[in-house]
Amino acid sequence: MTLRLGDIAPDFEQASSDGNIRFHDWLGNSWGVLFSHPADFTPVCTTELGLTAKLKDEFARRNVKVIALSVDPVASHLEWIKDINDTQGTTVNFPIIADADRKVSELYDLIHPNASSTHTVRSVFVIDPEKKIRLTLTYPASTGRNFNELLRVIDSLQLTEYHSVATPANWQQGDEVVIVPSLQDEELIRQKFPKGYRALRPYLRLTPPPV
């Protein structure tokens, strides 16, 4: 199953390190990040899960729930969590889905045979409160994910969801944003962007962030 941006994230019920998870119910009205790992006790993923735990307040501030997945069973997850807490100096504070039957992996197309016929690839899905997929990223096993970039993209998605703007290259929170080309009513533009804007081209109008 190939998932595309705008698709509804597949629902599922599966065991996890925090008990049984019914995914859509667990998400509730929050944004969500689902990220997969090839297996337990893998070095790069150990650092990623530790960093995720340390970023708990950053995710919470953005109304984001985080959930991980590995193809190993719950008992293995619980042992791995001990290693993560010890080696990364943190406490894992989010569930890790146990996907030994590959049910969730198949729903989210996480088994890529050219990479591994048994282990999941290291993918990220950002899901909005309507359960729509808003971002997908897939990394090779050798490269750790950039969590600064993940938070940056979530900031952009949330800003552009609720305002008539897009974010330019390398945008960071607080930088100028782009007024979407579809917005042409000058009176409405003045209402939405009271700080004004500068037009480099008719289609490229930059304005201070609306929030």
From TrEMBL:
The keyword tRNA processing does not apply. Its EC number is 1.11.1.26. It comes from the Bacteria. Residues 3-159 form the Thioredoxin domain. It catalyses: a hydroperoxide + NADH + H(+) = an alcohol + NAD(+) + H2O. Keywords: Antioxidant, Oxidoreductase, Peroxidase, Redox-active center. InterPro entries: AhpC/TSA, Peroxiredoxin, Peroxiredoxin_AhpC-typ, Peroxiredoxin_C, PRX_1cys, Thioredoxin-like_sf, Thioredoxin_domain. Homodimer; disulfide-linked, upon oxidation. 5 homodimers assemble to form a ring-like decamer. Belongs to the peroxiredoxin family. Prx6 subfamily. Belongs to the peroxiredoxin family. AhpC/Prx1 subfamily. This is Alkyl hydroperoxide reductase C.
